[in-house]
Amino acid sequence: MTQFSLRAFSSTLDEFPTMVERVRIAEKSLGKVSCKMSEKEVASRAFRRPLFIMEDMKKREQFTRTIVRSIRPGYGLPVKELDNVLGRTAKIDISRGTPRTAHLVD
Predict the structure, then answer these.
(1) Residue 17: is the preceding peptide bond cis (ω within 30°)?
(2) Domain containing 64 — which CATH number?
(3) What is the model's pTM?
């Protein structure tokens, strides 16, 4: 059976400052996480393809693939929300060409 020395898993008091320094370098290399949209992202929002209502809808009518489509300009719910919308119903009467927003869905 092979014996391991504790030295392989431990640092000495003299090595501690070096470890701290390397940890700080690693932290700086990660950068800062920001969930804010950059100026370029805000400017390019109009070119995205959000969901729009393509036909007039009555209150409680179901959203279907023919009624909800992805078109430009980019103001409305993102395309990734399509599966969350299909099969649900309209809260209010909705006019054709309305950008699809969360407050329209029951």
Answers:
(1) no
(2) 3.90.1210.10
(3) 0.47
